[in-house]
Structures are given as structure tokens and as C-alpha cells.
Design goal:
Blueprint: H1 2-21, H2 28-43, E1 47-54, E2 59-67, E3 71-72, E4 82-83, H3 88-96, E5 100-102, H4 113-121, E6 127-134, E7 137-144, H5 154-185, E8 190-194, E9 200-203, E10 206-209, H6 216-227, E11 233-234, H7 235-242, H8 249-266, E12 275-278, E13 286-289, E14 294-297, H9 298-311, H10 315-328, H11 344-368, H12 371-384, H13 389-401, H14 405-418, H15 421-432
Parallel strand pairs: 8-14
Antiparallel strand pairs: 1-2, 1-7, 2-3, 2-4, 5-6, 6-7, 8-9, 9-10, 11-13, 12-13
């Protein structure tokens, strides 16, 4: 009875101390670390941290942590992404919203073998973890190697609710700051245009997408001028991307109307026209992208990354540049026109280049046996290029290497359904041969 009172007295003392100090801390991050320090004192633990859970990807990521003798955010034994497959007991506890309590990893019969291996890697002899699912965030508050053996999870459970509120606040702040940074980066005369995955035009504080202007001809003319920016073009030249019919006065008028229609829409988000007319004495007027505007396009950034990658002799630098390019590729360039005569070669070029880049990175990561990072890039390619087998193959391959064979089989079945039975069989033979 005395031990229980000792624990309860410590909890009460810490609660008073914490609830006195928290109102004076405005930063969610600082408040969270104050909560974790309190938990470490109560449980006499050598480490306390937050595992942020992604329920869609079934992953656990260390979010914030503090370690005895090392302080906040010191180098951690956790991987940047931990797979829930190796923490089945934790996944069940999260589903039931019950705490995990392990006083001795070697003696506790409820500890699964793969969990025990993780505990050994993480230098965890004992652990208490309390789940939370509040304020739009999900995860665990964890104390490692608690030395107070008379303790129970009650205090940590209460702290996990408080910590979830602080994480929710921090993530909301991060989203606001990100939007503010994007607006600060984009100057008054700066325009950012994305073609990968669908057209999106960003100016300072505004955005214009293909769905906002129902005029395919206007968008075609814009994209043509963007990817051929070295010179200006006549209405006759631009009519070829508007419609493949014979050039007439009506077609000339149609091109001008579509340019005017686009500029009217663009002026809602910027004071300048994006497409301007160039009048030359004694010659037919031509059109070009407005030279007064600083226009950035994802395709051009992609090309620049590729140029830098080809020039460097440093293998690591080259791979880092290629990884950036893969992250930039969000899908087929201007997908609504990917099969049009005037754009098909451009769309095919970036698709082929991105596959080549991905396979170079994939082979490198496979040699390093870094299956977690390889899985991350495989998922990016799978999302951006669902019609290609490469993303499915490398995802299934990684799952097999990470002992997640059920997931590997599910991915192969998806490839059969989304691409073809033959492709699925080919992936199966490569992964499970």
C-alpha cells in the first residue's frame, strides 16, 4: 500500500508542478517537452518520446523525444520510419486504445519475437506506451526503461492526452507557416506553373487550375508557349495546337479569343497578362510568355536537376539530385493532352526519364539494403505512374525483404487488376522466385 501511495504522491506533485508551468508556455513544442520531462521524472525513465502514427501507411515515426543525459532530439536509435508490422502488439493496443506495459522484455510472454528484436535494437529492457487519438493526431507517448517499478500507466495516459493537443497545435502552426512561406517565396511578379500531374498556376497568394477555366484551346496555347519559350509565335503557328484544321481568318480570330479568355482569367490572380502580344513593324503580330513576369515551371526545374546530375562526378550528389527530380514528378505532364500530336513526345520524354531515374536510385538503395528508403521512393513512383510496373515491383520487393509477404502479395494483385494479369505474374516470379 505504501508503494502505491508513493507513486500517487509523486503523480500529484508532478501534476501541480506541470499545471502551474504549462499556462506560461506559449510554444506547443516547448509545452510538449515540459510534459515529457514530467513523465520521465514520475517513471524515472531514461527516455521519453512521441511516436506519430500514420494509420494509412501503417508506420510509426519518432516525432519529439528527450533522453536522459543527452537532452532534446539527440541522435536516436529509431529508424526515421518504423513499420507497424514489427510492432503487432502496439498496433493491437492502438486499436483497443489500451496501454502497452512491458516490465522485462525477456520474461514477458506477451512480447512477440519480432518486437523483442526491435526492443534489443532500441536498448529497451522495459517500456510503457500510452496511445492517443485526439485533435486529428494519432500515436503513442512512450517512456523507456522506467526504474519506478511501483508505477502504473495512469499518469502517462493522462499526459498522452495533453501531448496530443500540443502535437495538434504544432501541426496546425506548421501548416500555417508553410502557406506563409510559400506566399513569401512567390514575389509579386513571380509565377510558378506545374505541369506534372495536371496544370496548376501559383502567384502570390492565389492559384489557378485547369478546372477553373473550361477552355482546352486556351490551356493548349499556354502550354505550347511555355515549353517553347525561346521565341514568339504567330496565330497560325498557335492554331496548330488549338485545332488541326485548315488555317483561316476564323481560326486566327479563335486563337486571339482564346488568348484573351485566358488572360482575363489570369488577371484575377495577377495584375499582368501571362500571354502578351509582340507587334513588329511590317510583320504579323506574335505571342509569347510575358517577359515582365518571372515564370518557374516544374519541367524546367526537372531539366535543370538532370543537367546538374550529369555534370557532377560525385556519386552521392548525383543521386541526391535525381531523388529531388523524382519527388518533383507528380504524374504525367499535362495529362489531358498527353496523347495529342503536339505534346505526346514531351509527356513521353518525362515519363521515360523519371522511370530511368527511379530505377537508378532503386538499384543503389537495393545494394545498400536500405529497403525503407527504397519503399518510400517506390510509393512515390507508384502514385505518379500507376500504369507502370516498376513501382509495383519495387514495392512488392521491399515488402518481401521487410518480411511483409502479405503486403507484397496484395501489391501484386493490384498490379494484375490495374495493369494486366501478365504483368502481375512477371512481378510475382521476380519477387518470390
Amino acid at each position: 500500500m505504501k508503494k502505491e501511495m508513493d507513486y500517487n504522491n509523486v503523480c500529484r506533485t508532478e501534476q501541480i508542478r506541470l499545471f502551474t508551468s504549462l499556462p506560461r508556455i506559449s510554444s506547443p513544442r516547448n509545452a510538449a517537452f515540459e510534459i515529457m520531462r514530467s513523465a520521465m521524472r514520475v517513471y524515472q525513465a531514461d527516455w521519453c518520446g512521441i511516436l506519430d502514427v500514420d494509420l494509412t501507411a501503417n508506420t510509426y515515426c519518432p516525432y519529439w523525444w528527450i533522453e536522459e543525459g543527452k537532452g532534446e532530439m539527440a541522435e536516436t536509435l529509431f529508424h526515421s520510419v518504423e513499420l507497424s508490422e514489427f510492432y503487432e502488439g502496439w498496433a493491437e493496443a492502438l486499436k483497443k486504445m489500451e496501454p502497452i506495459v512491458v516490465w522485462d522484455r525477456d520474461l514477458d510472454t506477451n512480447v512477440r519475437e519480432n518486437e523483442k528484436e526491435c526492443y534489443v535494437r532500441l536498448e529497451t529492457h522495459a517500456v510503457i506506451g500510452c496511445p492517443y487519438h485526439n485533435h486529428g493526431v494519432t500515436g503513442f507517448l512512450v517512456v523507456r526503461n522506467p526504474r519506478r517499478t511501483d508505477a502504473n500507466p495512469s499518469y502517462l495516459s493522462m499526459m498522452s492526452y495533453l501531448i496530443s493537443a500540443k502535437i495538434g497545435e504544432q501541426k496546425a502552426l506548421d501548416r500555417v507557416e508553410l502557406r506563409a512561406e510559400q506566399q513569401e517565396v512567390i514575389g509579386e511578379n513571380e509565377v510558378r506553373i506545374r505541369l506534372f500531374g495536371g496544370i496548376c498556376i501559383q502567384t502570390k497568394g492565389y492559384e489557378l487550375q485547369e478546372k477553373d477555366l473550361n477552355s482546352p484551346g486556351s490551356w493548349n496555347i499556354l502550354v505550347y508557349l511555355l515549353i517553347h519559350r525561346k521565341r514568339s509565335y504567330t496565330t497560325q503557328e498557335l492554331s496548330e495546337v488549338d485545332c488541326n484544321t485548315e488555317y483561316t481568318d476564323d481560326k486566327k480570330k479563335s486563337v486571339r479569343q482564346k488568348i484573351n479568355r485566358f488572360n482575363q482569367k489570369f488577371r484575377l490572380i495577377n495584375k499582368y497578362d501571362l500571354i502578351v502580344r509582340e507587334d513588329l513593324k511590317g510583320k504579323e503580330a506574335k505571342y509569347q510568355i510575358n517577359p515582365k513576369l518571372k515564370v518557374w515551371m516544374d519541367c524546367e526545374i526537372y531539366d535543370d536537376l538532370m543537367r546538374q546530375a550529369q555534370l557532377t562526378t560525385n556519386r552521392k550528389v548525383r543521386l541526391d539530385l535525381i531523388k529531388k527530380a523524382i519527388r518533383l514528378y507528380k504524374g504525367t505532364a499535362y495529362p489531358s493532352q498527353e496523347l495529342s500530336d503536339w505534346f505526346v513526345s514531351t509527356a513521353a520524354y518525362y515519363r521515360r526519364r523519371n522511370l530511368e531515374n527511379f530505377n537508378e536510385v532503386a538499384k543503389h538503395l537495393d545494394q545498400k539494403k536500405d529497403y525503407r528508403e527504397l519503399l518510400e521512393y517506390s510509393m512515390l513512383v507508384y502514385k505518379a505512374m500507376p500504369e507502370e510496373m516498376d513501382g509495383y515491383y519495387w514495392m512488392a520487393y521491399c515488402m518481401k525483404k521487410l518480411h511483409r509477404e502479405r503486403e507484397a502479395r496484395r501489391i501484386i494483385e493490384e498490379a494484375k487488376n490495374r495493369i494486366s494479369e501478365e504483368v502481375g505474374e512477371e512481378i510475382w516470379e521476380k519477387v518470390f522466385a
